[in-house]
Amino acid sequence: MKLAPRPFALLVASGLGLLAPIVAAQVAPAPAAQPAPQTAPAPTTPATATPAPSAAAAPALPAEAWTPPPLQPFVATYDALYKGKPAGDARMDVVHTGGDQWRVDLGVHGRSGFASILGLNIEQSTVFTVQDGRYVPQSQSTVKKAVFFGKKVTGVYDWKQGVARWDGDLKKDRQAPIPLQPGDQSALLLNLSLMRDAQPGKTMTYRFVDVGRVREHVYRAADQTETVQVGDISYDALRVSRTNGGRNETILWIANGVPTPVRILQREDGEDRIDLRLTEYQGA
């Protein structure tokens, strides 16, 4: 009946990182100041009074010509639900820091249950470059803050040496160097790469390398778009699902013209667990 602070905050952070493995220590430098969001996401169809559909209930529509969003600065905010109840919010920022270098930041705030009482917040950040259209991580950091504790982790993707390393509040075996491979992604970069790569009917495979762990993530985009209700707005969106997550399902919906997923859903043993719904975003 009660919301445990650790599952809520970590799972929401994982949700916006497309449910990367949950770790004991997480951290990030404070993101650069951004202008206040002022642009609401543009609907593709009029808003209706029906509740948001479950992951399996949305009607299919013919797939439209799909245009991946270009990489651009934006600020997006999400409402977070835990088992269908409001639990907090999250904000994602993409910042162009100059030349071929960018940064993606994520902040998660628990505002209900024990997460709120403990003042639990998580901030994550990845600095990356764009090389031949690929997003190449350069450094990663995570910070977990609460009233009675705090944990920090920082990592470097050293492409000259061909290894990634993490330091901070994590187990010794997570601090061992990890050999890098072309195309390796951090948790936050997975989000941007899926936005770039998804096409109706396409299967996408990524190697996740973050906080001392390596995992293969396989996603498949639906053959057709479907109507997804998010708050007062309905979208004609493409569903993208992770296919190798075992009992844990990860599903996200992306819409033409929106630079970030409009909804991200985690289901466990067939039941909704974490549900992130876009409330607004501001583009460049």
TrEMBL record:
Keywords in alphabetical order: Signal
Region described as Disordered: 33-60
Composition skew (Low complexity), residue ranges: 45-60
Family matches, as Pfam families: DUF3108 (PF11306)
InterPro entries (UniProt xref): DUF3108
Protein's UniProt name: DUF3108 domain-containing protein
Domain of life of the organism encoding this protein: Bacteria
Source species of the chain: Xanthomonas sacchari
Start-end of Pro residues biased regions: 33-44
Record's signal peptide: 1-25
